[in-house]
Amino acid sequence: MPASPIRKLVPYANSAKQRGIKIYHLNIGQPDIHTPKVAINAIKNIDRKVLEYSDSAGIPALREKLTHYYRAQNIELSKEEIMVTTGGSEAFIFAFFCCFNPGDEIIIPEPFYANYSSFANAMGINIKPISSTFERGFALPTIEKFEKLITPQTKGIFICNPNNPTGYLYSKEELHQLRDIVLQNNLFLLSDEVYREFCYDERGHFSALNLKGLEENVVLIDSFSKRYSECGIRIGTLVSRNKELISSALKFAQARLSPPLLGQIAAIASLDVAPKYTADVYKEYLQRRDVLVEGLNKIPGVKSLIPKGAFYTMAKLPVKDSEHFCQWILSDFEYQGQTVMMAPGSGFYSSRYLGKDEVRIAYVLNVEELKKALIVIEKALEVYPGKIN
Amino acid sequence: MPASPIRKLVPYANSAKQRGIKIYHLNIGQPDIHTPKVAINAIKNIDRKVLEYSDSAGIPALREKLTHYYRAQNIELSKEEIMVTTGGSEAFIFAFFCCFNPGDEIIIPEPFYANYSSFANAMGINIKPISSTFERGFALPTIEKFEKLITPQTKGIFICNPNNPTGYLYSKEELHQLRDIVLQNNLFLLSDEVYREFCYDERGHFSALNLKGLEENVVLIDSFSKRYSECGIRIGTLVSRNKELISSALKFAQARLSPPLLGQIAAIASLDVAPKYTADVYKEYLQRRDVLVEGLNKIPGVKSLIPKGAFYTMAKLPVKDSEHFCQWILSDFEYQGQTVMMAPGSGFYSSRYLGKDEVRIAYVLNVEELKKALIVIEKALEVYPGKIN
Questions:
Q1: Which chain B residues have a beta carbon less than 8 Å from that of A261?
Q2: A325-375 pLDDT tens trace
Q3: Nearest Cα to B307, choosing from B368, B365, B376, B360?
Q4: How far does the signal peptide extend, from start to end residue (chains A, B) (predicted)?
Q5: CB contact under 8 A, B44 and A48
């Protein structure tokens, strides 16, 4: 199992910090946004003598409340269709266990969130990447390209919408194309929608759960982490209208006993957050996106699309090997005592040789810091020896 | 994947509750013991704006503090050898992923904690049970019996010490026997020691980590859940002196991002608990054990050994099919508006036909309730139609 490309650079970052250099962390999806006060207060006000197991499927009150949350997103669900998991991570582990057997193949548009592949590898599930490209704006590959990849072993398609790492937002039309492929080939469609709240496009978000006729096929991976900036509570959900699948997932849930109690208490409270919180967070990310993308495109040789969702962009840099650049900027460069940490693009591609001139940048820092980070990147590219002119 | 035998009876219990019957839950390992106040206060006093990811391997201060905890248990470790997991459950999932491949075999003395097998099944790992029997006091099977089971596919032995469900405490001598088998066959030895604090024998607990020469072979599964009665915080540890194994586990840990932050905050505080807490809890369980075992052995036809650890006993009942009895006592019996829920023994055996006259009883209720539950069992056996005379 390969080391996470995002975390591979950690020793270089630690060493830079030891030399007294300030690092702007554009490499990880840990926002600086405050967790809602209602969530933190719910934790501060706990009145329990025993911190005991909760139901394996999650506290019933949380599952019930989630039906209201999803209804507000135009997704009609019963609480039996919602299982609480230990973060979105566990939701995808359970989904993999329930939907696939060793030797099965899943098609995933690349670049994709690298952590998917770690557990898939360990379970003997083969990921078949299908390229989405910067040049096509990271749009969904054509149906023909999907059809070429489908074999008797193909059992599922996995999408992330809005997309980490590209920021691409799939359109309703693209999801309908996926529906046809899924139905024709009797596949599971796993949809990671943890960035649902962060869509910067008037068309808004269209959930895979709203694809008619796919009730037995769609599995939603979801999480409280990004929505309420509470990544540490480790609360996510696995959602499906496929009763057999939920019943199978429940067996895994029972085998691991229960999701975290304290995180669930924070999650229940988070669902009561004032609409102003969500609106303010949205505005903040939109502003950050604009500052970042405008700034990147002003740097000679750098290109970024305008991401329509999530809080990442896959930017093109004028370098031969972005992994080397990301290491070099930590180990051999500083500008006024500062440098930046970014995630090399190649780590998000399963196909070798792709993403060599790309980096994933997370806009999880405030505008002032983003501006400073942009200056560092510009200054670094002026002197970087591996630059392409 | 089979449904958890412990949870299979839940619908019958729910139905009994709806009929207004009080149920004594002897079926689960959820103690009624209070969580230490220091842990709950640490949660109430959190002073954070963002509930963020922690390090994938766990908060460094927690890992550091755990080295002191283990030192007090005569186990010398560095913090690099300790990884924080989401409960003991995740520790065994990681251990399975790191130590074994599909097709590999693990030998586990049965009866064993049923949840081990769920994930093993899903990973294609074959569990080879080796019988420990009531008649031999659930002692470790002989070396010869282990040797008969070992094939080229055998890659590990998994023990739980003190044992869930039998309450058996392995002696130093038995562990040395295991050491020889492990070394001769180059196996991993996975040792679940989550009940370490609950040993009712002057010999005390001997940890697999203290077996000389097995530094590369031993993997410890541990948890805060039972020790501090905080099952819901979902904090455990995976411990090994095998650097390659810990490095491999770290990759899985990174892929799931981080263990629960709030649970770790409670865990850090729990390690400061006053010695009186631990001593009081110990005395309480000892008293419960004595009341339960004495009471069971007074019921005609019922037999229990004296468990030397954990808080379970595998009792023999004078019935043909304990699974039927456990269901019947919920669905067709009550004594003064009360009944009991127990875990059928067969669910803890991988070999068919074993454990048919056994039940696992957890002494996680107070002495008064245990006494009432014992009366219910006695009265039930007097009228149960499937009784053996």
A1: 232-234
A2: 999 999 999 999 999 999 999 999 988 889 999 999 999 999 999 999 999
A3: B360
A4: none
A5: no
Question: Torsion angle of alpha carbons B82, B83, B84, B88, nearest 10°?
Answer: -90
For A250-262, write each residue's pLDDT tens digit.
Answer: 999 999 999 999 9
Q: Output the pLDDT for position A91.
A: 98
Contacts of B97 in chain A (CB under 8 A): 122
Note whether ipTM > 0.90 here.
yes
| Token pair listed for B106 | 């693990």
Nearest CA in chain B to A254: B4
- Are A232 and B93 inside 8 Å of each other by CB? no
Sheet holding A126-131, edge to edge: A82-85, A236-240, A218-223, A188-192, A154-160, A105-110, A126-131
Q: Is B87 on the interface with A (CB under 8 A)?
A: yes
Q: Using the beta-carbon criterion (under 8 Å), do A53 and B34 form an inter-chain contact?
A: no
- The C-alpha of A50 sits at a distance from chain B's nearest C-alpha, in angstroms, of 5
Q: B102-128 pLDDT, tens per residue?
A: 999 999 999 998 888 888 988 999 999
pLDDT tens digits, B124-179: 999 999 999 999 999 999 999 999 999 999 999 999 999 999 999 999 999 999 99
Inter-chain touch B34–A45, beta carbons under 8 Å: no
Q: Which CATH class is domain B10-34+276-383?
A: alpha beta
Amino acid symbol at B154? T
CA B347 – CA B111 distance, rounded (Å)? 8
Nearest CB partner across the interface for A118, out of B4, B7, B251: B251
Closest CA to A210 of A73, A337, A82: A73
User: Contact B281/B363 with Cβ under 8 angstroms?
Assistant: no
A142: its two tokens: 């054509």
**Does residue B89 register a pLDDT over 60?**
yes
At the topology level, CATH places domain A37-270 in Aspartate Aminotransferase; domain 2 (3.40.640)
- Say if the Cβ atoms of B40 and A46 lie within 8 Å: yes
Output the six-digit token pair for B98.
């790191």
Bridge partners (DSSP) of residue B218 are B189
C-alpha dist (Å) from residue B111 to A203, B125, B168, B303, B346:
57, 18, 11, 17, 8
Mean pLDDT is lowest, of A26-30, A196-200, B323-327, for A26-30
Least CB–CB distance from B52: residue in A90, A232, A261: A232
Encoding tokens for residue A169? Answer: 């937002």
Put simply, the answer to whether B86 touches A86 (Cβ < 8 Å) is yes
Contacts of A248 in chain B (CB under 8 A): 1
Q: Do B83 and B57 form a contact (C-beta atoms < 8 A)?
A: yes
* Average pLDDT score over residue span B259-275: 97
Residues 332-371 of A with CB under 8 A from B: none
Domain ranges for chain B: 10-34+276-383, 37-270
